[in-house]
């Protein structure tokens, strides 16, 4: 007798189930999850990125064995009526009850990570510098690999990072090294598709760069780029100030690291100078994108680290202050001031040598 399906989770673009929903003609291994989504650009993109990640695993066995990237590698199309027998899943999946639910759906299949928790639960449980360092080391590895293979994850946040193989004793000490897993590649950008013969594929980028200036994990230039793509008009100084305010107001990380009022003025003056430059909208989009996209995933990782450090009020001696300074530079409003992945790695290695010697 098969085990009754259990609802797993849901997000903007799909509902995930374990054990998986079966699809005719697809052989599904035991440790597999299924993700139901609309058969659209994003479901196709997630499968495409999955194939790229599979190629990475084929040449890097460490990536494969650690399950550093958890992605979907198979799919099938399915009608809504075929999902109705999975009553518990059907009732809970909001995607099935929206107006657009008359469309056909796609089931994506990928590996299930048993006994895993989201990053926030792991780091907020007896948070320590050691746990922050373990996660940051993982962040450096994945961002370096993704950059090398010209992929931007583009949706790095706590809910898209799983932790497994962890053990915490009563004193909050990690008794074995945890495994981190980056998931959900539906929003990921392939640079080979975004940049063709030195020209930006704006039609492709339009799917990803949607305007949401209050989302803190994305950098200021991302929100400016999104404005240009969504509205196809010049950015007024008034609108620039509005975007900056939405990004900075009620931003817990910025409130902890700086004087937000003065910081907003700095950002405004910096981008005001750029707006004065005589350029077409397409030229502005290209300049901003090419100058900054390689820093985006690391920006999100640094923001994540800072948010957990500040939220858990970790003690900050001189050495740890140096580490925090490195993270703060990673989310600098001037993308030219952000360290490269190589600089992050070198600085972190030097930091650990000093930190561990005391």
Structure description:
This protein has about 350 residues and is of the alpha+beta class. The chain folds into two domains: about 5-110, no CATH class; about 115-355, Orthogonal Bundle (Transferase(Phosphotransferase), domain 1). The chain is about 45% helix and about 15% strand. It has 15 helices and 14 strands. The chain has helices at about 40-60, 60-65, 85-90, 120-125, 130-150, 190-195, 200-205, 220-230, 235-250, 250-255, 260-275, 280-290, 295-310, 320-330, 340-355; strands spanning about 5-10, 15-20, 30-40, 75-80, 105-110, 115-120, 150, 160-165, 165-170, 175, 180, 190, 195, 200. A five-stranded antiparallel β-sheet has the order 1-2-3-5-4. The protein has a three-stranded antiparallel β-sheet with strand order 6-8-11. A two-stranded antiparallel sheet has the order 7-12. α5 runs antiparallel to α13 (about 295-310), α8 (about 220-230) packs antiparallel against α12 and α9 packs antiparallel against α11. It is globular and about 60 Å long. The chain starts with 5 loop residues before the first strand and ends with a helix.
């Amino acid at each position: 007798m098969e085990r009754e399906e259990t609802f797993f989770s849901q997000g903007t673009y799909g509902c995930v189930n374990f054990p998986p929903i079966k699809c005719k003609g697809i052989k599904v291994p035991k440790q597999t999850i299924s993700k139901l989504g609309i058969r659209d650009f994003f479901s196709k993109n997630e499968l495409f990125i999955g194939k790229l990640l599979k190629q990475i695993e084929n040449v890097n066995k460490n990536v494969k064995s650690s399950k550093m990237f958890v992605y979907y590698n198979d799919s099938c199309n399915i009608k809504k009526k075929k999902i109705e027998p999975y009553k518990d899943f059907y009732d809970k999946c909001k995607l099935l009850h929206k107006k657009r639910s008359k469309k056909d759906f796609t089931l994506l299949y990928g590996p299930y990570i048993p006994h895993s928790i989201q990053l926030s639960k792991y780091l907020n449980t007896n948070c320590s510098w050691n746990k922050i360092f373990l996660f940051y080391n993982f962040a450096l590895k994945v961002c370096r690999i993704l950059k090398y293979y010209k992929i931007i994850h583009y949706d790095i946040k706590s809910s898209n990072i799983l932790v497994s193989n962890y053990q915490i004793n009563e004193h909050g000490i990690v008794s074995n090294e945890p495994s981190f897993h980056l998931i959900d590649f539906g929003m990921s950008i392939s640079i080979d598709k975004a940049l063709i013969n030195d020209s930006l594929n704006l039609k492709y980028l339009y799917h990803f760069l949607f305007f949401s200036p209050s989302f803190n994990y994305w950098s200021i230039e991302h929100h400016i780029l999104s404005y240009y793509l969504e509205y196809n008009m010049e950015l007024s100084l008034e609108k620039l100030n509005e975007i900056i305010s939405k990004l900075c107001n009620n931003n817990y990380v910025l409130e902890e690291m700086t004087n937000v009022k003065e910081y907003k003025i700095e950002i405004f003056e910096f981008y005001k100078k750029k707006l004065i430059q005589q350029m077409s909208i397409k030229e502005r989009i290209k300049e901003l994108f090419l100058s900054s996209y390689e820093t985006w995933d690391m920006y999100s990782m640094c923001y994540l680290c800072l948010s957990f450090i500040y939220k858990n009020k970790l003690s900050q001696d001189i050495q740890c202050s140096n580490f925090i300074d490195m993270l703060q530079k990673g989310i600098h409003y001037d993308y030219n001031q952000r360290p490269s992945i190589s600089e992050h790695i070198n600085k972190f290695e030097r930091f650990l040598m000093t930190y561990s010697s005391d």
